[in-house]
Amino acid sequence: MNSNFSKSSAILPVPLLTVCHLLFxxxxxxQVQKLPEPQELLVIAEEGTLMIGDDPSSKVPQGTVLTTTxxxxxxxxxxxxxxxxxxxxxxxxxxxxxxxxxxxxENPSAQLHHLRGIAFIGQKDFLRAVRDLETAYDxxxxxxxxHFNMALCYRNLEQFPAAIRQLTLIxxxxxxxxxxxxxxxxxxxxxxxxxxxxxxxxxxxxLAPRSxxxxxxxxxxxxxxxxxxxxxxxxxxxxxxxxxxxxxxxxRGYARKSLNQDQGALGDYDQAIKLDPTNDAKxxxxxxxxxxxxxxxxxxxxxxxxxxxxxxxxxxxxGEYLDTLAAALAVNGKFEAAVEAAALAETLLAGNPGxxxxxxxxxxxxxxxxxxxxPEERIESVRTFVEENEQSEExxxxxS
Length: 400
Prior knowledge:
Order of helices and strands: EEEEEEEHHHHHHHHHHHHHHHHH
Largest sheet: 5 strands, antiparallel
Strand content: 5-15%
Helix content: 55-70%
CATH architecture of the domain at 278-388: Alpha Horseshoe
Strand order of the largest sheet: 6-5-4-1-7
Structural class: alpha+beta
Number of helices: 17
Shape: elongated
């Protein structure tokens, strides 16, 4: 095993590209042009120079991925850094791959394999990327960025235990790095190990206590552990830190509904949709409006409008959305259409632990009965979700 673990690792410059440090005023006479769409570029220089005004501001490490939105002559504006970088220091992913490949034929090096691996990640070619990153490791590189990039590749290749091992390796050497805890917590969450996820999110929050994203992730782990009040508190803290955090409102709505606080859930879902009208948010609100045991919350007409919207947006290919559509149709007295929607949902959800409940609801619609969700059924819904995740974890572990 490579024991030369370093916190940072300089990536050698690609010899084929000559890095020119020109004054920012070189492009002063050119007009600023907005690109048709933002473009991702890779820093190819050993250290890129960020210009603010006419003055060098800071150095940007090689291998950094930057997004540019405007150009002025040979200069590229980087909004995340609020500065400009020269063409000679930035390349596209394909240009980086071509240049590294040519250089590696004559001069194999860990740094260039790492750089090419980053370029493959940019192209979402995670298999080639991880091969380059593993080669870089075999050639002697062991840095936070290398292991983090390897974890990213393994995660996208659905090799979750391998991804967790890479993040654990970072934390074994640098326990004060917060982001690996967050990423590993996300992986534990996906694997159904909610207690391990919560431990990692708590540790990450010790290092970054004002992170709304971490508060939200922690809330998800708490909710899936059945600790709904604690989950609501965590989501509320995330919203306090970022009042426009739509996902935190949506998740708080889930938790409130689990405690039968349907009015509170209704307010959260509405706010989530105002901030970010995703299909998931609309679906959750539609389900609540169609199936809430609280008559003051139910709104059959709006439930059906939302359900139709998301089902059409997904070409009637999402089983969960069709299950909601069936419930909304039934509460509006359209039982024949509800049966058809529920039957299609059953087909699309075949093999899913929740399909049993979908089938039972379809049988209610056949008898011209609506479906009103009881507190016990809500608990069963959460249990089914947990079982589904545990099943996925067992399958992943058996494959690995």
